[in-house]
Here is the input.
Amino acid sequence: MRILVVEDEKKVARFIRKGLEQEGYIVDVAEDGIRGEELAENHDYDCIIVDIMLPRKDGLELIKTLKEKHIPSPILILTARDTVEDRVKGLDLGADDYLVKPFAFEELLARVRALMRRGKYGPPELKFEDLSLDPSTRKAKRGDKEVELTLKEYALLEYLLRNPNRVLSRAMISEHVWHQSFDTETNVVDVYINHLRSKIDNDPSRRLIHTVRGVGYVLKKEEEKE
Here is the structure.
């Protein structure tokens, strides 16, 4: 899942980014409101974390703009100004929740997960055939069997489930799962695909992850052998 953090305090931004990435999220950071608006318009985010005090365009103006442009991502406000007026104004403009600085990362994480569980962005459960994934609990199942996944396996499976029947190149997978440009010298994507297959595709007659030679992979129902 992908999160946008709009925060101009570099130390705070690094703290949030590191914590979320350790939880398996892909994180983009914008240091001002204008850049935050550009990223929000060009990417689909599962949550946007916005500081109120921002250069170029403050957080409240940013929230107003995002809502006017009908960007559906839930928004969590960060504010050092612990006043009822500021919090109410942000919520009235369309923010979904707020957190006052300083805060514990565990609380931030809990707020982010709660926003995702509300179902304002995307389906509460991702499902294809008998394979399912619950983003709020991070639990995967194939049929009635629960599947244990590492953080990167989870991120890879989520990306596949959000794009069923679509051929995903190795470059696309690398960008979305590892958040980096694809290195043609590495086989990390293929290695993790094999890890995932060993956990959810044990039955050859019911395979869901298919290789597209020279391109990448696709999640689709098993058909006649090519």
Notes: The chain has a mean pLDDT of 86.
